[in-house]
Amino acid sequence: MGVAAVIAPAAVFFAVGGDVHLTARPAPESEPVIVEDTTPCCMEIVAAAASTAGPSIGQASLAAAPDRMVAASRYRTVDRSLPVGMAPENGLQVKTILASRAISEAFPEISSIGGVRADALRWHPNGLALDVMIPNPSSSAGIALGNEIVSYALRNAKRFGLQDAIWRGVYYTPGGAQRGGYGHYDHVHITTTGGGYPTGNEIYFR
């Protein structure tokens, strides 16, 4: 299955106000996270160990090979596929799975990510949303971790098909941030454009 099948485009929907957790005494809203642009990488080529073994029977002599073939034999590719992440993947769409796997690997501090669940709004039931649970979310370390996850999601917005992220009263989209009554003080809510349901043959890359 090609990478294009994994990242097939889907219609973009809005989830403003979705999955808002209300408290009797809402915490103060945070300043929007500032995002620094980075370019994710999917494949890596590294130098392979030099072989001291001679050619086996029936093997062509390396001395007769073109220089480019000899040079290529000194390199190997490294598997850049992502392992299964913290979110249960049953019912998630492909871009949501990619976001879950990438966040799980990038932030080993995260031990729980919610995915598909019953909800009045369609984002979670349709496999379009994740709840990245933050350890000690009201502590300075927890707030910093949530900020880092929002920044990471926004930097990878195109790759994840990111529609929005919500954290500590701020609603983020690839186009900007908006403060005001959005809740989500114990987890980072992430919504993707989905990309369709997996067939089982997908490979998710770093």
From TrEMBL:
Pfam families (alphabetical): VldE (PF26571)
Residue span, ARB-07466-like C-terminal domain: 89-180
InterPro entries hit by this protein: ARB_07466-like_C
Superkingdom of origin: Bacteria
Protein name: ARB-07466-like C-terminal domain-containing protein
Source organism (scientific name): Mycolicibacterium rutilum
